[in-house]
Design brief:
345 residues; BirA Bifunctional Protein, domain 2; ATP binding; binds 3,4-dihydroxyphenylalanine; two-stranded antiparallel ribbon; seven-stranded mixed sheet; alpha+beta
Length: 345
């Protein structure tokens, strides 16, 4: 019996030492120390022993059991410790690694230009007005002194939806709509940014959809000098104090007289270069004194009220300001282009 107990002890301790994980160790515990285990089995034969041997054997059995239990406990500690170490190694974080930057969005360069222009005019007392992109022929053309069949309609090749409805070709219809709302009473002082559409083939300087910003001031005693002064402030704020402007006579059906405004070329300082096509000047916008017909059609007394208007393309302004050589960059959403205008980097 004594030998059998010793044998069991050696066998168990050996198994414990080679146990690879906690599950295996638990199986050993159950098989050796459990009620149906071999030690219990051996102890059942105690009855056959003499009175002197019995306590000795009992003590030995306890010793064997204790040593197996101690062996298991010891091994369990080691296995648990190893598991913790393994987990730590697997989940190790190198806090010295540089962080991954979070990518942030950013205003589109055109939005930035438009907001800059809006802010400038808001600072001069203007309010921002809006109008529909799907517009009536009446507001897009007729109310702007472009009756049906007027040859100047050809300047703005249009997307018609029905005979009377089209995608607006410019932001000027907002002039007519706003004046109408004022019911013949001044002052009117608005700027109106928005999308416009023309049947153009897209190339480096044309896009079938682009932006415009319209300006309109109507009041008593508004003169051409007010227009010139306003445009001068705008040009200097937008392009730099050192820029000059010049007004050239032009034609728009909704203004009389009409002008086009140029700014002096910054690149060559007026000497002439490829950007200004050798002229020293760069065309920026169209403008003029609101045509009396336009005032009258919108319900204003053209004997009492006068006004000026202007219209510009923010893409063109952004292209000049940022040196962009193709209008399509604004609409093709190439992040490599857009990222250059990020204020976060
Ligand atoms: N609507 C014109 C265009 O799209 C731009 C323009 C010119 C607007 C003169 C105006 C203006 O208000 O006075 O070409």
């Amino acid at each position: 019996m004594q030998e059998r107990l010793k044998e069991l002890q050696t066998e168990a301790l050996e198994k414990i030492s080679t146990a690879a994980d906690l599950k295996e160790l638990n199986d050993i515990r159950v098989s050796y120390l459990g009620k149906k285990g071999p030690i219990t089995e051996v102890l059942k034969g105690m009855g056959k022993l003499s009175a002197e041997e019995r306590p000795k054997m009992g003590a030995l059995a306890n010793e064997v059991r204790d040593s197996i239990a101690a062996g298991i406990e010891e091994k369990q500690k080691r296995l648990e410790e190893a598991a913790v170490q393994e987990k730590l190694a697997a989940e190790k974080i190198d806090v010295t690694l540089p962080g991954r930057p979070v990518k942030t969005g950013n205003h589109h360069p055109l939005t930035r230009i438009i907001e800059e222009i809006e802010d400038l005019f808001i600072g001069m007392g203007y309010t921002v007005a809006e109008g529909p992109e799907v517009e009536k022929d009446y507001y897009n053309f007729e109310a702007l002194n472009l009756p049906k069949g007027h040859p100047a309609r050809d300047m703005q090749d249009s997307f018609y939806i029905t005979e009377e409805i089209l995608l607006r070709t410019h932001t000027s219809p907002v002039q007519a709509r706003t004046m109408e709302k004022h019911e013949g009473k001044g002052p009117v002082k608005i700027i109106c940014p928005g999308k416009v559409y023309r049947r153009d083939n897209d190339d480096a300087t044309h896009s079938h959809q682009f932006m415009q910003i319209e300006g309109l001031v109507v009041d008593e005693n508004i003169r051409m000098t007010d227009l010139k002064g306003t445009l001068q402030v705008f040009a200097k704020k937008m392009f730099g104090e050192d820029r000059e402007i010049r007004l050239r006579p032009s034609f728009f059906p909704f203004t009389e007289p009409s002008v086009e405004m140029d700014i002096s070329c910054k690149i060559c300082g007026g000497k002439g270069c490829s950007v200004c096509k050798g002229t020293g000047w760069i065309e920026i916008l169209g403008a003029g004194m609101v045509h009396p017909n336009v005032l009258e059609m919108a319900g204003f007394d053209s004997k009492k009220y006068t006004g000026f208007a202007f219209g510009m393309g923010p893409e063109r302004i952004a292209m000049l300001k940022y040196g962009v050589d193709d209008i399509r960059h604004f609409y093709t959403n190439d992040v490599r282009f857009l990222k250059q205008f990020s204020i976060h980097e």
